[in-house]
Design brief:
Length: 221
């Protein structure tokens, strides 16, 4: 069943852990004990009798850097908050899609993927079957992050890749929003919510929001 991406995004972004989680699995196995793996393990701990986390590194008790996460030594900033697949298996985090790190979407994406897993496991779906419902939710998150980071990359004059259809119009709209976010607190709040991945990018594209942004930009010329 089709669900509007902005609704899915808002629902997943505001999801809270289940108050009385149902145990659905004996043992869940998570490969990779970094951002996405640990968050997914946290969700699975609500729904499995035990969770086994495997990593190629020795995981110490502290938070020191380790070879499996070479980017761990870099400063990280978080600006906010199916198909034919084997049953009982999902992929989360950078294993699904990784973005230009400059936009700081990787950790928010990993957290939202874990929220998708939580919503999926709470929906009554069979956790041993192909997780189509999970991937449908996760796709909304991945597409939103991918769209934002690639369109920002395309705006750089040094990037020579062909621009997709409609690119000039979407660039114009995006410039209106960014410009208005500097002078108008209402647009700024909406813009922040999208950059922080709390709201879907389409919430900035409504005629009312765009008209307000254009008005604000004209009145502050
Ligand atoms: C330079 C840089 C800067 C970044 N800055 C930001 C930022 O400011 N803000 C932000 O939100 N995101 C940033 N990111 C992106 C962010 O780091 C990733 O999106 C995030 O770490 C993804 O988490 P993950 O758990 O999917 O993958 P990773 O963090 O890469 O973890 C993968 C895990 O899998 C393990 N593993 C790998 N192979 C195996 C195997 N064969 N068997 C078992 N375990 C295995 C590894 O040891 C590791 O523990 C940055 C990325 C880079 C490279």
């Amino acid at each position: 069943m089709y669900q509007r991406p902005a609704r899915v995004f808002a629902r997943i972004g505001e999801a809270r852990p289940a108050a009385a989680p149902r145990v659905l699995l004996g043992r869940a196995v998570v490969l990779g004990a970094s951002m996405a793996g640990l968050l997914a393990a946290r969700v699975l701990a609500d729904h499995a009798q035990s969770v086994l986390i495997l990593d190629r590194d020795e995981i110490g008790a502290g938070a020191e850097p380790r070879p499996g996460v070479p980017q761990g030594t870099q400063m990280h900033a978080d600006p906010g908050a199916g198909c034919r697949v084997p049953g009982g298996v999902v992929a989360v985090g950078d294993a699904v899609a990784s973005f230009n790190p400059i936009y700081g979407q990787g950790m928010s994406s990993a957290a939202l993927h874990a929220s998708c897993l939580s919503a999926y496991l709470r929906s009554g779906a069979d956790p041993r079957g192909p997780a189509r419902g999970f991937f449908a939710l996760q796709r909304v998150i991945v597409d939103a992050a991918w769209g934002m980071s690639t369109s920002a990359d395309l705006a750089r004059p040094s990037v020579s890749a062909p621009r997709p259809r409609g690119y000039r119009l979407s660039r114009w709209a995006s410039n209106q929003i960014v410009g208005a976010s500097i002078v108008d607190p209402v647009i700024a709040r909406r813009f922040d919510a999208v950059v922080e991945m709390r709201r879907h990018p389409s919430t900035l594209a409504s005629p009312a929001v765009l008209a307000r942004a254009v008005r604000m930009n004209r009145s502050h010329r």
